[in-house]
Please model this.
Amino acid sequence: MFARLPGWARQHLAALRILLVFTVVVGLAYPLAILAVAQLPGLHHRADGSFVTRADGQRVGSSLIGQSFTDADGNPIARYFQSRPSAAGDGYDPTSTSASNLGPEDVVDTFDDPAMRGTDESRQSLLTQVCARSQAVGALDGVDGRRPYCTASGVGAVLAVYHAGPGYDGRVTRVVSVNELCPARPFLTTYAGVPVRCRTLTDDIVAGQRVVIRGDAPTHPAVPADAVTASASGLDPQISTAYADLQVRRVARVRGLPTGQVSALVRDHTAGRSLGFLGEPAVNVLDLNRALDALTPARR
Amino acid sequence: MSSSVAGVLAVALLVAALWVTYRPFGDYMYRVFTAKRHLRVERAIYRLTGVNPDAGQRWGVYARSVLAFSLVSVLLLYLLQRLQEHLPLNLGFGAVGPALAWNTAVSFMTNTNWQAYSGESTMGHTVQMTGLAVQNFVSAAVGIAVAIAVVRGFARRRSPVAAGGPGGPGGRGAGSRDDVVGTGDELGNFWVDLTRTVIRILLPVCVVVAVVLIAGGAIQNLHGNRVVSTLAGGHQTITGGPVASQEAIKEFGTNGGGFYNVNSAHPFENPTSWTNLFEIYLLLAIGFSLPRTFGRMVGDRRQGLAIVAVMAVLALGSFAVNAAFQTAHHGTVPVAVGAATEGTETRFGVPDSALFASSTTLTSTGAVNSFHDSYTSIGGATLLFNMMLGEVAPGGTGSGLYGMLVLAIVTVFVAGLMIGRTPEYLGKKIGSREIKFASLYFLATPAIALLGTGVAMGLPGERAGMLNSGAHGLSEVLCAFTSAANNNGSAFGGITVNTTWYNTALGLAMLFGRLLPMLLVLGLAGSLARQHPVPATAGTLPTHRPQFAGMLGAVAVIIVALTFFPALALGPLAEGIH
Model:
């Protein structure tokens, strides 16, 4: 029936027909066959989303998807183990999964300029986010929250150093602490003999030489790395064993449980490396918190 | 056990698994493409579509079939997205905008799977299954088909002396000549190669893989969003979808287009540390086994071994650099944190994330389990370098092999210049026509990547799409165009690319980055197929020895270094060294 068509048209017709056949075979039959297999007992719970329920049968989440354990204002609820920071929506939003995508040298905060009405262009740099989270976790769990390149006030310790000559040459004329907006008192009084000023919105930060100040924080901070960095998915269901151990004392105190008992629960909910060497040992936060609630029900 | 030791063991397991499957899987693919018989289901497909499976195609016809199939693929996928609101299981998502639909259609047709959209808020289940996943299968199959056609160009009219020589296929020698369909300079039949790849290679493996992934925790359902009340008293909306079936082909076909925005970092796509290594294995499996198929088809397994050795050395070297910088965590924020954990998942850890990142950029996959934008400067640079290498170690399904074969031609040409002999590879003379095809092949992709980056940086509105400023911002734009032109699809994700300009420009970059090299390499194969092989003499450069393999690796690295060094110096290197 298509024999009278020119060669190029027949070729495209064959292409279209073969694509339609594949659409049926691998676009419908294949996923639906897998769906059928997924109904088998043993697979169905997982294929469904690994949902976990309360005693009354109501779903409280998925053991694979992390949750925020914060109150309506975003403050951590002390009786729960806390998850990692999340960049998914407002935190742990599966409909808006994301990582921060901020780079290793993202150290300068952007502040909102009131002159630009109706827009909020402020953005914390990754460094300041890390510093602030470290301080907050340190305060919550009663440990030293200091980190390298962080100020005591919990922002990135970054200076813009202006020189008399071009190419960062000549004597230093002016120094601005770029992440401390006036009227804040800069974390450093002088740099290279020049007084350090707080930042104003008119400062041209890009023109200055960027200098980060290491400070005297320990190289291995008390607050673990995963507690201050956002995960890749924004839904990371797990935390490191170090971050879990850090939180044991607080959770035990708030719930009135012996520390040993909470530690034992943490160990119960720690997944080791698969095959002994794949990935990292990690603690499932939702499962751990559910086990705690089963032990000492939350007052609602 | 320290995480570095664990990371080394993970790599050892991966290498062992690839080594164990190299031979049987490569041999299986050899049999698939040289078998005379068609399966019953294949016959049915040929009957339904009016294809004569026993007709050979010359390179021009083969190339036109590829183009025709690519065109209808883009059109159908574009239509499916534009008509989404009328499709079942659309989860309430409306039509995808024209620029984004164009970008996505090209992206999936070209095996790039660049995603300017976020899966969970744009695509319903029907578009995912019958649009995106179908292209995951067939775009991978097109790559393999073209690679096999190119190998046939080399293998055609092999002299009996070479085919039966030492190290030759021995008892199966006749088989290696059987793949010759017809008597002229045909390269095979595109429709047959396409169908066999889908039916005999991709589909059976994916069925098994999908079930294994479900056992690990990947989901496979047709639910919409389900709202749960969380322990903290809030609400969380948990998504559903046919994820496992899509995840399997996404990795195995080196596609990389995630069901969700965060791709293989999402616990529903990649739930555990063992599924993570399994997925890494899958995305490398075809690329590392095809050289065996190549060796069998040209009648000398050692040629395949030489190619796979070069691939392996480049891959391990690149991974070692990446992992070293990621674990050493240089840079302001990584030092402040004490580890390069920003944008990585706890269950994978830093070394296994680096392994995934290296594998995904060394192939044309572009799936991610951690976010490359937040990698250390030099760690991120190695990922860019992997893509710039043209993805030949081992590269995308098929495209890695033909990329490496073109590199081999350039290498014998360079060697020929050194010793003053007409270069030849696998018994075929490399004359001016062949070297022109090869040179154009290697100019096409960098030209697209660098011109695109240059234009984007020249336009103020497009420059503003960068999330990070300064050198890291340039890396984001460079990564976008490098990834698109090389059909990788991974990104320094901070950049805002869902704009009409970026969607259009990156769509064009992907289209030309896929089809130009394919046409050039098919033209090269056609020209090789016409040649009568020259018998090997004492002066012939043996192309299976370490000497040649070393030169091949060096040529690959030097071509990339010369082409991309200025751009890399302004981006990640400027950021890392200060």
Summary: The two ends of chain A are 73 Å apart (CA to CA). Chain A has two domains: 50-100+230-300, 102-229. The CA atoms of residues 142 and 250 of chain A lie 8 Å apart. Chain A has a mean pLDDT of 93.
